[in-house]
Write a structure and sequence with these properties.
58% helix, two-stranded antiparallel ribbon, mainly alpha, 2 domains, 2 strands
Length: 132
């Protein structure tokens, strides 16, 4: 690394620890209400901590309250099993109804005489009895 890069990194790290003063004043009387001594590093740490806490509170609220049911795909395991069982039952009932309808249609055709007969003549080979 060139020496300039090391010096610029060192200067940037030093800037993080420089102390600054944040003063809150009353606008009418110019009286100093509060004053804070801050560094860039302390502001960064405070904002990062605040962000992590907000994310943790949001996640905890969603996971441990009934709000989780409003998230798509996030359901109770018991409800998911019940849903799969009902889905399988509906599929089997649909298959049974289709089979029954086909059976009834065939039965109506037989009763009504609407049977398509196979009119092709079968060619049965002759059995030679002389070999026995």
């Amino acid at each position: 690394m060139p020496a300039e890069d090391k010096n610029s990194k060192a200067r940037n790290l030093d800037r993080l620890n420089h102390k600054y003063r944040l003063v809150i004043m009353n606008d009418d009387t110019y009286e100093e209400v509060t004053a804070f001594r801050l560094s860039r590093m302390s502001v960064y740490v405070a904002l990062s901590t605040l962000f992590v806490l907000l994310v943790a509170i949001t996640v905890a609220t969603v996971v441990f309250t009934p709000l989780r049911y409003y998230i798509p795909g996030y359901g109770d395991l018991k409800q998911r099993k019940e849903f799969l069982q009902l889905r399988m039952r509906a599929d089997s009932l649909e298959r049974a109804i289709t089979t029954r309808d086909l059976y009834l249609d065939n039965l109506k055709n037989v009763i009504g005489g609407n049977i398509k007969l196979d009119t092709n003549m079968l060619k049965v080979p002759k059995v030679d009895n002389s070999t026995y």
